[in-house]
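Why run this: before we spend reagent on co-expression, it is cheaper to look at a predicted model of the complex and decide which construct boundaries make sense. The entries below are exactly what would go into the expression plan.
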Amino acid sequence: MRSGKLVIAQGGGPTAVINQSLAGAVLEARLFPQIERIYGARHGVRGIVDEDFVDLSAESRANLEAIAATPSSALGSTRDKPDLAYCRNILASLKATGASWFLYIGGNDTADTVRIVSEEAAKEGFDLRSIHIPKTIDNDLMENDHTPGFPSAARFVAQAFMGADLDNRSLPGVYVAVVMGRHAGFLTAASAAARTIEGDGPHLIYLPERIFDEAKFLSEVKLVHERLGRCVIALSEGIHDADGTPLSVKLAKTVEKDAHGNIQLSGTRALADLLCEEIKSKLGIKRVRGDTFGYLQRSFAGCVSDVDRREAREVGEFAVKHAIWGACDGSVAIRRIGDYAVDYAIVKLAKVGGKTKVMADAFIAPSGSDVTPLFQEYLRPLLGSDLPQPARLRSGAIAKVLKR
Amino acid sequence: MRSGKLVIAQGGGPTAVINQSLAGAVLEARLFPQIERIYGARHGVRGIVDEDFVDLSAESRANLEAIAATPSSALGSTRDKPDLAYCRNILASLKATGASWFLYIGGNDTADTVRIVSEEAAKEGFDLRSIHIPKTIDNDLMENDHTPGFPSAARFVAQAFMGADLDNRSLPGVYVAVVMGRHAGFLTAASAAARTIEGDGPHLIYLPERIFDEAKFLSEVKLVHERLGRCVIALSEGIHDADGTPLSVKLAKTVEKDAHGNIQLSGTRALADLLCEEIKSKLGIKRVRGDTFGYLQRSFAGCVSDVDRREAREVGEFAVKHAIWGACDGSVAIRRIGDYAVDYAIVKLAKVGGKTKVMADAFIAPSGSDVTPLFQEYLRPLLGSDLPQPARLRSGAIAKVLKR
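The model came back. Tokens follow.
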């Protein structure tokens, strides 16, 4: 029987529930006496190479539960993308510390790291069980119905657009908000969940899965604005023209030049500003406002889908069960069963690592500037319970006296 | 006894709880038979002048309660600042519709409108009772301990900084977020509520009540970054240099010129970008990120202080009671009693209208880049119950094997 230490780490961008997976794995690992100690690596694989470990076996259950409810990565994260040499250093450190299990929570880059570590360990004859635990607000992992972290970020985006749409009803004009997601439009598409009745925004949704055509964009904004006297727009930071270069990247370069090298604008913020300016100048609409949701959408404290919370916990638990009882390394995947339940499976690391899932054509409206009802059905159960329900006045207009 | 219709309207920027005040006033007004009908004016005073009224007496109690829980102004709002001629049109419309009471929910501009309407009605001998109901996320109304709408916006800012600080711990660097408030720094200062233990961010808070000195700013960021390896900064959109011009305004002009008139950047977004760029280039820090909270902080659906909710309801109720039983026009004011309860009073409209309260010196740290414990004591009860409580790992470091 394999015995020794279990090393766990967190990689990539934090989410609202990534610590649920950490707590799920740690609490489950404590049930198996062959796991002598549970070590957490600080700042992902960087901490493994640097032997920067903390002893998670020493954490109280109450504190682990409190950490589970805390957004962002409690162990710290890293943006390092290990190559083969880096992975060999990971293995050397794991060996030296007496690890027999390696669990890494993260997205497709993280899964790819686990793949290399797994393959190299096998080559060396190092008896290590390596498991990838899924996490990403981008929802872009292959083999998964959806990914822990996405439902909570999607809920944030939905609640943000609910409020922004009510704000825009109150003081009409055009509102553009830029949402995270360079290649996959799921998070931007989640804005559709803000709509309750006909006329609710967002009225237009632009995804990186479709080529962004500014002329088409402006004519669509014009139409909505003429019809409703206002227009709310959700825009992915990854929107790009026919050659595939994101507008934000092109824009960042332009603005850097214009500013004589003094001001280097972050692309996504400049994106909202540019499009607002285009709407003002080309459509002659006066009140145009733009926001870029930025880091709030992945780390806001206090906006969590309870479905996401539960599933993020379960993928951590499942990873440990498989690490003990399973016969292979792999990546934990979420499978949807009916409407709505999930089951978990282990899939080959190569099927997830380094690959990106984008939105299916069936999720995108033929217009290219909205989602389909099928996507809304897909999204709805993920957002969790007690989503705010905006209400509006029903009362009819009173006949005028002076101006009748 | 005065009898007739009651006209109510909402002005200025929406808040998370402004509909609580609407519901509070409408439900209370129904208890008085001398109020024949309750009319809501659509889009503030603009709706009064245009005779764009809806009959709020027809709304169900359940729907009014649902609307109360919905952010933004259910009646719609306006940015119109009426002059004397405009106010005479308001009076003509109120007279024609048979109004005997006029309630207007809003900030200091709204209070000033009510003042002019009240004075003109008196001059004309029109028996109208006019009351201003306070609302503003800026918390800048004179005579008030605090203002409905501020506590919920403050809670949003606190939760946003909690998450941003945890995110920044996970992936260290410098993070700058720009918060609303052109003249009063209360909302930016609310970021301090995100801190639990030593080392928590925001580490630096810049308010419009103090002159912003870029050299001082950079040296303070440098010091924090050297000490902690990271730095989280809260910055008011209203920060300005010695001549009083906000940096965002200066910046907007500069960028417009640099972009050859093609890109007119909104000042506050450009502000975050500029300061991020300054930190990168002058301090040589690599990972620097900036956000501008934008409209989310005043309209996000699902982030409300329960204290704010209750008080916003009560100012609406109180306004109607005073409108019926009181002997004068006025503005409802919130008074704090002990730690923590409130009472309501009616103050003269001229004491609130058109005036701006800023943060007391006792609330601002001598450094000029933080708040005092006194401000934290002032803020704490306003944020309401069940504020998220971030937790962190306690476990100590493991001795290194390879690199010892």
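Chain B touches chain A through 93 residues (CB under 8 Å). Residues 255-266 of chain B have pLDDT under 50 and may be disordered. Bring this page to Monday's planning discussion.
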